[in-house]
Structures are given as C-alpha cells and as structure tokens.
Amino acid sequence: MNGSLVVVDDVAKAFAQLVADQANLKPAKPFSLAFSGGSTARDCYQELSRSASTAIDWSIVTGWWGDERCVPLIDIDSNFRLVKEALLDLIEPLAAVHPMQSEITDPALAYEELLRASPPIDLIHLGLGPDGHTASLFPDSDALDSPKGRLVVQNRDPLSNNPHERLTFTFEAIAQCTTVVVTVAGSAKTDALHRVLDGDLSAPATHLTGTNVIWLVDNAAMGARTSR
Ligand code: 6PG
User: Hey, how many other C-beta atoms are within 10 angstroms of the C-beta on 118?
Assistant: First the structure.
C-alpha cells in the first residue's frame, strides 16, 4: 500500500478536520478539492457541512469531481447531486465548482482539458469499494491501462457490480494531486482494505500513488478479515 494508514474512531470527523486543516493553511490561498461519490463520502460531506462550514473560507475553494456516473446531474445516482445535497446546499458558495458533464461531446477530454488549464488539485477524496475499486477504476476495466498522459477517461465495471457508464480520473491524474485522502469505513470494507494493505495488485486501489497519500480508516474496516 502506498501512503500512510491512519486508524480513527470516526472517519467523517477525521476527514472534515483534515480538510479544514489543509484549506486553512496560512497565508490564505485558493484551495481545490476533488469530491468522491459513495455513502462514506456522503457522511464525510455532511460532517464537513456541520463541523467545518464556518472553519473554511469556501469563497477561495474550487470543487472538482474525481469520478461521476454518466447520468444527468440531477439524477439520484449523480455524484454531483450527492455533493450538492450533502454539502454545497448547506454552506457558503464556493469560488467555483466543476461538475463532470457527461452529456457533452467527448466529456472525458473536455474535463481533462479543464484540468490541464488549472493548477494541480490540492486534495482529492477517494473511497474504496468492496471489490477494491477506487474512483471508477474497477477491477479488470479498461481505465486501469489508460494511455500515458490521459487524466480523465470513460469507463464501466465489466462485472456490472457498479452501475452506469462512468467518467473517472486515471491513476496518473490522482497522482498529480497534492494530497490523496482515501476514506474507508465499516466491516464491509475489511477484505478490500486488507487486500490493499497486503499489496494485492488485483485490487485497483493498491495502485494509488501520490506525493501524500493518507488512508483514513475506522476500526471496523481494519477488523478481523474474513477471507484469505
Ligand atoms: C462512486 C464512488 C466510488 C465509491 C466507493 C465506496 O462513484 O461510486 O466514487 O468509488 O467511493 O464505491 O463507496 P461507499 O462509501 O458507498 O462504499
């Protein structure tokens, strides 16, 4: 596993504190954050809206997405809608938000061009799926072997365990972010987490690299593994 493992009692609270600490570095400077999807991420953003809503100057924060489902942004399965409802609707406006627009021509390349025209993302938030995926980088999927230089690609889960065609950062794009924070909560993730800790390369999340990779995991996720 690349990065540092931090076992915490409450992943959402630890995430909110970490974001507040990083966003409030002095002197104040613009801060960019790439959001994740998933229920763990939703818990993190709800906590962020509760405990850090005033601790962070949202007017200098720019929001990105590390992956998205290819559905309308108002769709119940949209990661944009998840973040809007859990955080954006509850805090002061951000400086800018860049949803992944899947309904335009060549959406992956369009988002990639937007990324290239912007400073590196300060912090990307990722989750871990029970199958070992992160963002929308699924096991045995094409995006795991994206051409060098690609930052955003379309992808889908070949095993159909995860719905929808996706847009996702590539490992290369993730590695270019200054800080990578992976939040893992609950016993349903124990096997996937231990596959990553053991360096199992069949788990896509094992391939995560970056300058500063932080795994925020709770005791339930660390728990007693069930499979060998
Ligand atoms: C998505 C997410 C995905 C998620 C993991 C964990 O679009 O679904 O980006 O990578 O973070 O599947 O999701 P849970 O926290 O719901 O288990």
Answer: 13
